[in-house]
Amino acid sequence: MTTTTQPSGKPFPTAGSGGGPSSTTAAAPELPGLAWKPVTAVAAVLGLLLLVTSGRWGYQGDELYFLGAGQRLSWSYADNPPLMPLLATAMDALFDGSLVGLRLPSTLLSAAGTLFAALIARELGGGTRAQLRTAAVWASVPLVMIVGHALSASTVDIVAWTAVSWLLVAWVRRRDDRMLLVAALVTAVAMQAKYSIFFLWLAVAVSVLFVGPRPLLRRPLLWAGAAVVVVSAVPGLLWQADHGWPQLEMADVFRRESSGAVAYVGVAFFLAGVLLAALLGYGLWQLLRSPELRPYRFLGWSFTGLFLLFLVSGGRPTYAAGLFPVLWAAGAVRMEQGAPSKWWRWAVSWPVIGLLFVFSALTSLPVLPRAEEEAVAGTKNNPQAAETVGWDDLVDAVEKTARSLPAGERDRAVIVTEYYTEAGALDHLGSGSGLPEVHSAHRGYWYFGAPADSATTTIFVGSDREQLLERFTDVREAATVAGKGNQVAGTKVWICTGNKEPWSKAWPGLGHLY
User: Fold this and answer.
1) What is the pLDDT of residues 217-270, one digit of tens each?
2) pLDDT at 373 over 80
3) Strands 492-499 and 457-461
4) SS3 sequence, 63-115?
5) Half-sphere exposure for 272 (CA within 13 Å, toward CB)
6) 3, pLDDT greater than 70
7) DSSP state of 297
8) Please, are residues 125 and 32 in contact by the beta-carbon 8 Å criterion?
9) Which strands sit side by side in the sheet containing 438-440, from one edge to the other?
10) How far is it, in rounded angstroms, from Cα 233 to Cα 192?
């Protein structure tokens, strides 16, 4: 029999070779009680806030794309696996087009993440104060409110990372291999929403090789779970291979959209809760340096490696944010044990957490009323709002253009948009208006197919006249999308005739991901 170290610093026995649940669970030290009532209360407050704001304003562009893609179900898409389109379509049908119903999975997942975060603190040896502090930080930061407001692959991804982190921490303490199998099942689901959880496991594997616990990589149930993940991902990977691996090209798109290292760090600082980033940094330091947390050091190095990897590769700060809860939990546990100096403890005091909760709600959720003179209420208080308004104005402009066509010409018309979000909006919000068929050469919509060669008139949304004249002999402006302060306001709607080459011939060269 070997020994390892529990969070309190005292050794406890673990299995030497068997790793079976019956022989190891009894050897694990007794955990602090789970602070059910306060943690559940925090989760309920977060869930209620997300619920009451989820129906305000309108759809985000990706939600409209998911709804459009859901009408064309596939094993994969150019820019994401199949779960989100499938989930969007199911929720839209189940709740009869309700925006609140569409976003209910994100609301519930974000609230559930509060519990997973608290469970990590508990597994690290944290009592009620550490669990409650970790849960409160999760519920108060902009990261969670942003991903919890809309139906988003990032919501599934971040909550899945948090759940897997809890299961890994629990395995280190208990050596119950069933937790590795559950972690694999969570991973399999997450891989159907976003592939980035692969990087979590890669970072964990490398870190474990260097700092332990190396027995983790020798557990049969871990590899059995890995086989399940691979098998579940095969249909999507085959689709990607058959279509030239567009998902890999999306990585280059994100690099081109990156604003640089300074912005990357700044956004990460904002998402982590500004002042509460002190708890994040303290938790990382404790994971890397504290003897009491030595068994979990691999998670600190995993975060460090991933944060730097995405920094230099032009990734997004949200990619490594799924490990934030581990750092918050480690910091909260050590604070509960009286480890930190007093001079910065005010940064993670309860008044600061309360103020951050209000700040996050104002900057990340549509809590303030929309101003009549602005298309986006709250451009001043909520930049995310620009993505959720203006779609009705877009549909109105295109409907007006379609109605202006003579009846015979309207029957032979097609709509093509510059961006995939515009196509999603017209597909979903204009579905009952008798609009012509909607297409776009942008991202996933390009893979849905070209307009018919029989289409003699194209209603084109976006672009400019000079570019359109390269494809059509006659281009005239028909409408301009009303509003201001949102991403579609001012967009031109054109009537184009005289295709210079059939759509079937032109379409292969028009696809673009950026």
Assistant:
1) 999 999 999 999 999 999 999 999 999 999 888 888 877 777 778 888 888 889
2) no
3) antiparallel
4) HHHHHHHHCCCCCCCCCCCCHHHHHHHHHHHHCCCCHHHHCHHHHHHHHHHHH
5) 29
6) no
7) H
8) yes
9) 438-440, 413-417, 457-461, 492-499, 472-480
10) 7
